[in-house]
Protein 1
Amino acid sequence: MLSEHEKAIKNVMMGVWFILASLSLAISIFLGFNPGALTGQFFSAIGGAIVIVTALNSFFFRRIESYQPPLRGYLLSSLLLLLVGIVFVFFPDQGVALPNLEGDITPKLVNISLFLIVTFITIWEGLMFYWENPAHNRELAVKYFTWLSVLIPLGVLIFFIVYTIMEGSSVIDWYFITQETDILRGKVGIFPAIMGTLSLIVGATVFAVPLGVGAAVFLTEYAKRGWIKQIVGVTADCLWSTPSIVFGLFGFVFLVPRITGHSTLLAGQIILAAMLLPLTIATSTEALSSVPDEFRNGSLALGASRWWTIRRVVLPSSVPSIVTGVLLGIGRIAGETAPIMLIAVASQTSAPNFFSLSPPYFHISALFREVDALPYRLYSIYKAGVGGSLQEAWGTALVLIVLVLMFYGLGITVRSYYRRRRGW
Amino acid sequence: MVPVKQEKQLAEDKNGEGTIEQKSEVAVEIQDTDVYYGQEKAIDGVTLDVLRKEVTALIGPSGCGKSTLLRSINRMNDLIEGARVEGTIKVDGEDIYSKNTQVSKLRQKVGQVFQKPNPFPKSLYDNIAFGPRAYRHHLRKDKGILNSFSGFFQSGEKSPIDGRDMDDVVRDSLEQAALLEEVEGKIHESAMDLSGGQQQRLCIARALATKPEIILMDEPTSSLDPISAGKIEDLIDELSQEYTVLIVTHNMQQAARISDKTALLWLGELIEMGNTEGLFENPEKELTEKYITGRVG
């Protein structure tokens, strides 16, 4: 049951809600439907998602058993949300321009404000419903609400990917991903950027993973005292939350002058490794300490040494979690532009050339040259107007997403392979 | 305790002469041993002998130091921070807390089975081969680096402990642990798919694969259902033909059923030790009688 105080709140909120409801209804009727006002597919797709989610929202709340008084309020607010959402998405330039001194309350501003207000009212109605109902219904309400929380991010994610594919796929062909840009023939290729990003990722992983896992092994298996763990933990957290441009600055001031004096692949790899390291330490420590002590004792009691125990029992059991952590980190550093901008990249360079078919076959010197990178290429197309159309940028973004997803796919394969053998 | 004294004397004589043809009857000799956890004294001046090829049961209420005493025999107490052992514990007449003791070799000789079955998340085969492989690894530095490649050239893996084929070692260990029939054809599948009782028998098989002389069991049946526990008890009976078994148990019926000797520990002290029948039927101490009849504990 609601207390008096809660009832009072609810009454006030109902009043507010009725005012807003009539206002919004009036506005949406006033606006009418004008297809000419369609401005962007982006917003229409978001709008579609919102419409679907709103519909699902009302549907779920309707299905809750012994659904009583708030039905009216909640359904109406959901309907309102739907209406305002449609206006917000499909008719961004329509609406009332409220007269004021500055003249800066534009229809867009009104629309988005209405949208936000109605969203909050809908949430409020949901909460009211939660408060007013007995435990069984609360359970259901929470279940549906959490279900929605899964659905919404998933929808946004799928939307991003689908949109990128729609925009980017038109420029992608075999030439685009396997060749360099040929100005004379007017053909665009981002092969150098792909190889550059790959070299950066691989180098950073090679530097960071052994160090990170080593640190985690020390912390969980050998360090006896708690304060060492705490210091390392706090340091890793600080490193992880350091803005990436600071890493870039550090590399520019300290690393670049000590390597060649100009941007190099190696500097980029080292700085990205420094960014990857804290996450690797954190996830590996977590993974290693989640291995039950029974395994360690079982191994040691058979006469195995500590290192053999770590190598044969502890590490294999924690590979899935370590891989997951490292891949999360790779996903982040693959898209970083800020740290490498100053120290590793330059646009319109050729792909790093480590291998050749003639002697000496392997060229270490590739480490000491500049590279191109996908996020940097994206940035230059958007911001600096390097290269061609925005379509190219979308194509580049798509390649970057696919690259990162490929790493995830690899990780999931490794993880499931080891997880099948785990099972505790 | 009294009847073993002569045999101990005998053993000392033999050691003195340097003949080791027939090993002493005493497998584990604990002399006036204290174990501390930090400031707390968990074991207080315990002296007892464990005879070869017998089952010795340690009984007593929770927290009386049974497991502590067990763990100090294969030095698993070393892993607990702040644990300290004072006194002498000899396995096969060698002081295991001397500086020359190789803990790996000690633990290969003194196997342990834990309260909760703890097979590794590997196949049954790899679980059992784990001990021998670790043993080979620890010996490898004596044998040179070429040996580490031997696996690539040999078709079959040999156990470093007795030179037998590893497949045979695995099968024999499973058979000794009365598990072979149940897992026939599943040897290369994950050990985590076995039932609790099978897992515990696998852990026993795993301990047997290193050819131990002594097996320490820390309440091996307490997490199992009665039928699985019964199988483990039968198995312990079988094993006592060849191995020395030291078992910690809460269950006095179990101690009475399977052990030859029983020792009662109380608050870290050894109250009484003797033949199981004698101890349960005519206990010398009043406390023992009270404990086994359930009037205290």
Protein 2
Amino acid sequence: MAEEFHSSQPIYLQIMERVCQQIVRKELAPGAKLPSVREMALTFGVNPNTIQRTYQELERMEVVLVKRGQGTFVTEDTAKLMNLKRDMQRQIIQSYVNHLRELGFSNEEMKQGLSQFLKEDHDD
Amino acid sequence: MIEFHKVNKKYGFNHVLKDISFTIHPGKIIGLVGPNGSGKSTILKLISGLTYPSSGDVNVLGELANRRIASKVIYLTEADSFYPSFTVKDMLNFYESQFADFDQEKAIELLHFMKLNDSMKIRSLSKGNRGRLKLVLALARKAPILLLDEPFSGLDPMVRDSLVQGLLSFIDFEKQTVLMATHEIEEVEPVLDELIMIENGSYLGQYHVETIREEKGLSIKEWMKEKYKG
């Protein structure tokens, strides 16, 4: 079935993000083979050239590697996987901080808010 | 490869295409968009050699488009031309007799994919299933150029979805180029590589859809609205 996308962002980026999430969650383990371009195109209901672009970008980020004639695989390099995880965390923190800054929160308030939230969330 | 070079088309005093030039590279899915009456179908007819330019050249796969191009171009018109008393199977056999590149095996695979029964009579098919059958007949051919004229018009979302999946599953991207005229852009924007925009017979431009999303942060539909307003 075709997946839904935000229509105002490049689709190749949105699919990249989903693949990265799967890698960080270990749904795609280190060394695992990614589906073929055609399979991915069908899963997401998008043009195969878009998936090609996604895979190229992931390869450029060194998150996956292409083995000639065999397919595309998640890297087994733990340092690179850690980097990916940290980058994704950073992005989320960045957007958290940006949103609160827009509302006029100070750094101290942000930290307090976050630890308060985590405490309550933990108590549940 | 499809090339339009300064193409004009007049029907009497009606100037339907004005000085149109563009190039389509192979292995892509291109959307041909524009309001009704802007000349989309005329462009498809020129490529399939069903009509000729009043001036300028239409080159398809390195030769001037004429009726002989029919063996290399699949043209799915907006209207269907089925014989109501035929069964689906008869229709397949008819196509096989008309087109040397028609692949029966692939056609049968496509019928399964589209959940069509080959013993059904054309007249008993729903509108959605007629739309599916049209695409089956088109995709069962191996010709390198596939022209689709409003393949989704009047069909419900379920049918559209199955047509899109059919396109993605059965097009040979190494060898086939698809040009589809449509105004239902939302349905197809995830499968398009490029857009060719026309308005009132004039060429507005050719755009890579991911670049539009990336550079403008707009959906193709929003962006088109802006384009056509300006």
